[in-house]
Amino acid sequence: MSSDRLRRISWWDVAIIAITLVVLLVAAGAVDNFGSSRNFGFLVLDLLPIALIALPMTFVVITGEIDLSVASTLGLTSAVLGSLWNQGLPMETIVPLCVLLGAVLGAVNGLFVTVFKLPSLAVTIGTLALFRGLAFVVLGDSAVADFPAAFTSWVTGGVGGGPIPNALVLLVVLAAVAGLVLHATPVGRAVFATGANEQAARFSGIRVDKLKFWLFVSSGAVAGLAGVLWTLRYSSARADNGVGLELAVVAAVLLGGVSIFGGKGALPGVLAGVVLLATLQNALRLEDVTNESLNIVTGVLLIVSVLLPNLGRSLRATLRRRRLRAARHT
Amino acid sequence: MARPDGVPLLEVSDVTKSFGAVAAVRGVSFPLHAGEAHALVGENGAGKSTIVKMLAGVHRPDRGALLVDGDPVAFGSPGEAKAAGIAVIYQEPTLFPDLSVAENIAMGRHPVGRFGMVDRAAVRREAAALFERLGVRIDPARPARGLSIADQQIVEIAKALAGRARVLVMDEPTAALTGVEVERLFAVVRALCADGAAVLFISHRFEEITALCQRVTIMRDGAHVSTDPVAGLTVPEMVRRMVGRELDALFPKQDVDPGEVVLRVAGLSRAGAFAEVTFDVRAGEIVALAGLVGSGRSEVVQAVFGVDKRDSGSVHVNGKAVRPASPRAAMAAGMALVPEDRRQQGLVMDLSIQRNATLPRSGALAGLGFLFGGAERREARRWTERLQTKYGDLGDPVGTLSGGNQQKVVLAKWLATEPAVLIVDEPTRGIDVGTKAEVHRLMSELAADGVAVVMVSSELPEVLGMADRVLVMREGRVVAELARAEATEESVMFAAMGQGAVA
Amino acid sequence: MSALKAPPAAAWWSSVVRAREAGIVLALVALVAYTAVSNPRFLSGQSVRDILLGTSILAVLAVGQAVVVITRNIDLSVGSVLGLSAFTVGSVVQDNPGLPVVVALLAGVGIGVVCGTLNALLVRYGQVPALVVTLGTLYAFRGVTYLTAGGQQITADELPRAFLGFADASVLGVPWLVVIAVAVTVAVGVLLRNYRLGRELYAMGSSPEAAALVGIKVGRNTLVAFAISGAAAGLAGVLFAVRFGTIDAAAGTGYELNVVAAAVVGGVAVFGGSGTVWGAALGALLLTVIGSSLTVLDIDQFWQQAIVGALILLAIAIDRLVALRTARALRKGGPHVQ
């Protein structure tokens, strides 16, 4: 029985999982239709893109970087998907191409960060604008909608026509893989070490730049996949698909206990953060709160998720100082 | 120039400061009198920097007090220390690289003219006047970015003068200065003392202390040893008080017949850091790199290990060339580096002991690519126990350990890779005497087992006690190679200072 | 010793700084010349006026952003503050047609200062990075605007003549909007260049550690910097309302990208400590001219945002290259080894 394993589950993880459960219960009890299986399907589809992108984002933020371009990558892959479909390419070819495109876009970020040594914040604000702009260049403000039913219904449908959404299975598989890699492989160890102390990681033989590059590539690839799923779910390829989604993703990751300063975090907490965010949005929407007003909730949650641990830490530090002083005087 | 009533300008009175469980400074007292230059000496880790930070208002003493003109003061911030007339000049000056030199001097107390506007002409004039008074040529309009360390220190002194500082604290100001620059600095400091300022001067160079200072305070392991007039002390006596033990108190290295050449470094150069460094290390040998702080020793070993780039030169291990700028390649070739800065380079303080101890080997420990903790825990336990590391739980963050035990975790981390070449950079800096002896015994055993050991150390007793050969570096070059029999305090220091320095 | 080499180094440095602003001017001249040759309509009175009015709003925002970025922070909430100010002031003017324009402008500034102060408090006392805070408030302020708007839209015919007329009014032939933008740029420029506070903002961005050691009041100054950025965004909101007349809750969405781009392209380093508001204002002019040129040259308007993104990347890459070259020059001339 190792206390290392116990300690790895921080109080914040426990709190966020508990809060998520409470919110789920309250929503099920107090909000009409929340508990219906139809709404459950919607909830899963709503949180799918956020959850997917949050997986690599967790890695990226733990290494002390950030990727704000993910929503624009989603938009650009969506636009390209629509455009390629218009040109008559088969869907079987388009889908892998789009994921590859996402990976390439991620590689662009990765190159700027690791080769030119630019801060990822500035780089991905630039590519946030660039990729979204290119999406509009590709598709303008038109929409492509006539996607084959086999593909759109796979995204919205359930396993074998049952109540378990296909999307949920995909998410669970990917989350399991991400969780294993982060918490039980040398790559995961390198991610935490790099975020907590990049110099020491380098001195330990970790190829920090290579690691970061591939994390940005996977972030782009997953955002590309999310772009495909988003397009197929709404059966609509548009350049402005997923505008602002980066906020929800970053909010969920930070809410899930990942430190914005790097080095700390765990995947279960992040998944709880995603569910919490999606549940709140879903429930409030059922209560007729508009999408745009919901942004207040997301924005405030984002700030609070960093603010609270900080306040907690300074409070503990103050208490410790006071205790030391008291001990000294006795 | 001392005040008639004999009250010092500043007095450090029985101060104590701890970080976590470690007491960095315990019960230290000394006075700084007007018109006097006062030396503070001690080995690395003796607590000098902590004293400096207290005077600067960065740290507050846990116990004891600072007295200005006889009255106790408590500095809540660096600003308050400055307001009390205390100026600190750090080894690494803290300037604003984007701003002009003149503005660096004026920052925080700009002269104000019409409409409350900064009088930019006055800012430049003031800087020019100060530089003239100090007898240096620096263009006040140029940005601070790109100034040499010596010039940056002159700017810092100008800042202190402009702020009407009465107490000047100089933390190893001469470490990176050339002889001419040191002379210029001393002229400035003597003029300041003549004007009635008090100077606290921290240096490792005894000839500077005897040339400049009137009084000297010696510290050892955070404690106050003595405060005396410099005139009454000989250099060997100062050394004895600093070190506090005779050489034979250290664990001596076992004699080993050296084997084949394991590490061969040839013509290693990097612009601005070191040039044409060439040396061999044989199996079973301990080779020490000695020299002053800033002479380029750490830079050399970091380039050998591939953490830093090199401009030219080659590194071979057992006859095979090692790819430059790749710690991975160095590790694969059988090298290990225990770096100088434990907190920044050696360990990830927030991670557990277990994770730290197994970080370089996480790939090798993984089963089918996965790590579920068992193998890491076993490995970490094996090596930490072998090094007799004291800890509560392998899952505790490594930052909670004492300095000595942290160093053992770093050693464990690298010994677990079973290196053919072990490079240790300041292996015993800031750790207690008992652990020091253990580290020395360990290094000796490793050498006896056929490991080639390279040791960078600023502690002469350690160098003389442990090394089979001593390479002395000065200003980025290897200037002397001394066999064990030739190496004495005098011969090493003489080579390190290169100017007939040891008194 | 490097002191002897000081004058050439200083000249070299200032030439780099000047190169950035000269480069923008050069790019502007080339772009204007090319566009005007292809289509002379580009230099017509109406077109120039549109460019100037567009630049005014963006320049006010970019000047505010420059102040924050110089302190090594960022304010992503400016687009939302603009929207909140535009809609709130628009509604107030709608209900009180007699309100003088000056009061409307001041009301916008007031709203902005409140928003900026909130950002600063979270950054300084919550120890939350500016990126996270302003990303959060970007959405929160926008949400508040949507809540108050409740799907409403304010149209030009609901606003009083006097208010909208301000967009067309001019002093000595120069539109009021332009006068205001120039006044803001000059005022903030003088503050940064000639006042203690401004110099301290540069110091904070150049080296936060040294700033604390020198005893600069970092907390107060952070507050002022964000308040200025907020005030600029609030003011820009009123200018936006005046210029376009039609305001909904989405006013200014996505502006933050253009604003950051204008500042960064104008030579305000993302690492803090250097850059000027003149550069930021020039950057705003360049971006606006690019937008107009696209229209005139019949290039798809959709390229605009992609160009903004590419310009951001280009600008930070150039900053980085200059910094690297300085570092290398310094290393080669280091004190130890020739």
Q: Would you spell out the secondary-structure blueprint of this structure?
A:
The complex is a heterotrimer of chains A (330), B (503) and C (338).
Chain A: H1 3-8, H2 11-30, H3 37-62, H4 70-86, H5 91-114, H6 120-139, E1 143-144, H7 149-156, H8 166-184, H9 186-196, H10 198-203, H11 208-234, E2 237-238, H12 245-255, H13 267-286, H14 291-329
Antiparallel strand pairs in A: 1-2
Helix pairs in contact in A: 2-13, 3-8, 3-9, 3-11, 3-12, 3-13, 4-5, 4-6, 4-11, 5-6, 5-11, 7-11, 8-9, 12-13, 12-14, 13-14
Chain B: E1 10-19, E2 22-32, E3 37-41, H1 48-55, E4 63-68, E5 71-73, H2 78-83, E6 86-89, H3 101-106, H4 120-134, H5 149-162, E7 167-171, H6 179-194, E8 198-202, H7 206-212, E9 215-220, E10 223-229, H8 235-243, E11 261-270, E12 274-282, E13 286-291, H9 297-305, E14 312-317, E15 320-321, H10 327-332, E16 335-338, H11 342-346, H12 353-358, H13 362-365, H14 374-386, H15 403-415, E17 421-425, H16 433-448, E18 452-456, H17 460-466, E19 469-474, E20 477-483, H18 489-497
Parallel strand pairs in B: 3-8, 3-9, 6-7, 7-8, 13-18, 13-19, 16-17, 17-18
Antiparallel strand pairs in B: 1-2, 1-4, 4-5, 9-10, 11-12, 11-14, 14-15, 19-20
Helix pairs in contact in B: 4-5, 14-15
Chain C: H1 6-38, H2 45-70, H3 78-95, H4 101-125, H5 130-149, E1 153-154, H6 161-168, E2 170-171, E3 174-175, H7 176-194, H8 196-206, H9 208-214, H10 218-244, E4 247-248, H11 255-265, H12 277-296, H13 303-332
Antiparallel strand pairs in C: 1-4, 2-3
Short synopsis of the structure:
With 503 residues, chain B is an alpha/beta fold. Chain B has helices spanning 48-55, 78-83, 101-106, 120-134, 149-162, 179-194, 206-212, 235-243, 297-305, 327-332, 342-346, 353-358, 362-365, 374-386, 403-415, 433-448, 460-466, 489-497, and strands spanning 10-19, 22-32, 37-41, 63-68, 71-73, 86-89, 167-171, 198-202, 215-220, 223-229, 261-270, 274-282, 286-291, 312-317, 320-321, 335-338, 421-425, 452-456, 469-474, 477-483.
Can you give a write-up of this model?
The complex is a heterotrimer of chains A (about 325), B (about 500) and C (about 350). Chain A has about 325 residues and is mainly α. Helix content of chain A is about 75%, strand content about 0%. Chain A has one domain (about 10-300): ABC transporter involved in vitamin B12 uptake, BtuC, CATH 1.10.3470. In chain A, strands 1-2 form a two-stranded antiparallel sheet. Chain B folds into three domains: about 10-95 and about 145-245, 3-Layer(aba) Sandwich (Rossmann fold), CATH 3.40.50; about 250-335 and about 420-495, P-loop containing nucleotide triphosphate hydrolases (Rossmann fold), CATH 3.40.50; about 350-420, no CATH class. In chain B, a hairpin with a 2-residue loop joins strand 9 and strand 10 (about 225-230). Chain B starts with 9 loop residues before the first strand and ends in a 6-residue tail after the last helix. Chain C is an all-alpha fold. Chain C is built from 13 helices and four strands. Chain C is globular, with a radius of gyration of 21 Å. Chain C has one domain: ABC transporter involved in vitamin B12 uptake, BtuC, CATH 1.10.3470. Chains in contact: A-B, A-C, B-C.
